């Protein structure tokens, strides 16, 4: 019998309707079990742990990421896989962060949630949850995990966590991996795509790395952005790194003041990474004249990484390498766990 640990952190999926007032409220472990009894009496043995109190996804932060990572790491030998229920709003941030924290991960960590509470008749929670557990327990003929990655499962599709972003607050298909194919698709059967899965080195040990440096910021360019706005952002005290969200394939205004502000920042040791605002496609520094200034100012290209993954990667690398900015820059330009495509 396979063993899966289900970790409930909160979110819409864990809400049920109060029978007296009709208001939605968090479900305790025993009440939650009554809504998905098939999960706890099937071929997979599921054990349940809950965060107390539950955490709204809007309140998620790096301290909680670390707490969750340690919980999984401390139980890694006891279970074949892990499922984490999480609010959808920041799920991609948390899941991306854990993808970097687990070095050489050998077992599945599947994040899932719901657009409607599990206590609502039309809820998508049951299907998302049951299939996530099945994927977390899936092994090949040699007993190795079929998907040894941190993933997000939602609306019949399994995505690599650090390739995924929330795209819709209304539809059941809330998430999308724009620049990378799904790892599996669930229909009558679950079809896996091993050519897209990132497999670990079975001869190397798994390591947990949870040091985080939160001194990062996102600077989103827009037509009419002022010099004062850019300078105020780049002069935040003790700032270490910037996600610079640009147009198209990595383009920015050719204003002299913008070049000078960015050059001054990089000369001070602030790492600036160019991230396109487009959900599909990659940064191609130097393709157009409007990105040449960024290159000359010392801005790095972010390829096709998501904002969620880039923020998490920056925090992780700065935390693990506090005295080596050059190493951080080098690793930002490498794919550590499948988060970017480098041609």
- Spatial extent as radius of gyration: 21 Å
The CATH architecture term of the largest domain is 3-Layer(aba) Sandwich
- Could you state the CATH homologous superfamily of the largest domain? L-asparaginase, N-terminal domain
Distance between the termini: 42 Å
Q: Into which percent range does the helicity of residues fall?
A: 25-40%
CATH topology of the largest domain: Rossmann fold
Strand content: 15-25%
| Shape descriptor | globular
- pLDDT averaged over residues: 93
Q: Low-confidence spans: pLDDT under 50, at least 5 residues?
A: none
Number of domains: 2
Tell me the number of strands. 18
Q: Give the topology string: H per helix, E per strand.
A: EEEHEHEHEEHEEEEEEEEHEHEHEHH
The SS-based structural class is alpha/beta
This entry's quaternary arrangement is single chain
Count of alpha and pi helical runs: 9
CATH first level of the largest domain? Alpha Beta
Strand order of the largest sheet: 4-1-5-7-8-9-12-13
Q: Largest beta sheet, briefly?
A: 8 strands, mixed
What labels would you give this structure?
alpha/beta; eight-stranded mixed β-sheet; Rossmann fold; 343 residues; 18 strands; four-stranded parallel β-sheet
Task: Give the secondary structure arrangement, pairings included.
Blueprint: E1 2-8, E2 15-17, E3 24-26, H1 29-35, E4 44-50, H2 62-74, E5 81-85, H3 91-101, E6 102-103, E7 109-112, H4 125-137, E8 150-154, E9 157-160, E10 165-166, E11 175-176, E12 184-186, E13 190-192, E14 207-208, E15 216-220, H5 227-234, E16 241-246, H6 256-267, E17 271-276, H7 292-296, E18 300-301, H8 307-320, H9 325-332
Parallel strand pairs: 1-4, 1-5, 5-7, 7-8, 15-16, 16-17, 17-18
Antiparallel strand pairs: 2-3, 6-14, 8-9, 9-12, 10-11, 12-13
Helix pairs in contact: 2-3, 3-8, 5-6, 8-9
């Amino acid at each position: 019998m396979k063993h899966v640990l289900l970790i409930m952190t909160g979110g819409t999926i864990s809400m049920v309707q109060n029978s007296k007032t009709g208001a939605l409220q968090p479900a305790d472990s025993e009440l939650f079990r009554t809504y998905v009894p098939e999960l706890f009496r099937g071929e997979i043995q599921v054990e349940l742990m809950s965060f107390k109190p539950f955490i709204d996804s809007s309140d998620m932060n790096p301290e909680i990421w670390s707490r969750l990572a340690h919980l999984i790491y401390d139980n890694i030998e006891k279970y074949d896989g892990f499922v984490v229920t999480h609010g959808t709003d920041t799920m991609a941030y948390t899941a991306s962060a854990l993808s970097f924290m687990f070095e050489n991960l050998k077992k599945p960590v599947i994040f899932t949630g719901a657009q409607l509470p599990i206590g609502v008749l039309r809820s998508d929670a049951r299907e998302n949850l049951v299939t996530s557990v099945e994927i977390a327990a899936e092994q090949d003929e040699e007993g190795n995990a079929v998907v040894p990655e941190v993933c997000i499962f939602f609306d019949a599709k399994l995505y690599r966590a650090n390739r995924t972003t929330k795209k819709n607050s209304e539809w059941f298909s809330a998430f999308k991996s724009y620049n990378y194919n799904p790892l599996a698709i669930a229909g009558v059967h679950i079809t896996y795509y091993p050519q897209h899965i990132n497999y670990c080195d079975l001869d190397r040990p798994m390591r947990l790395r949870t040091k985080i440096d939160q001194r990062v910021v996102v600077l989103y360019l827009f037509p009419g952005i002022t010099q004062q706005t850019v300078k105020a952002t780049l002069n935040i005290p003790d700032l270490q790194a910037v996600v610079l969200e640009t147009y198209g394939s990595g383009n920015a205004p050719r204003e002299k003041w913008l070049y000078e502000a960015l050059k001054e920042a990089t000369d001070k040791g602030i790492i600036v990474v160019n991230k396109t605002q487009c959900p599909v496609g990659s940064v191609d520094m130097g393709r157009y004249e409007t990105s040449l200034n960024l290159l000359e100012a010392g801005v790095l290209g972010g390829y096709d990484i998501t904002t969620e993954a880039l923020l998490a990667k920056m925090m992780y690398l700065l935390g693990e390498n506090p005295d080596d900015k050059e190493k951080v820059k080098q690793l930002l330009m490498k794919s550590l766990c499948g988060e970017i495509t480098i041609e």
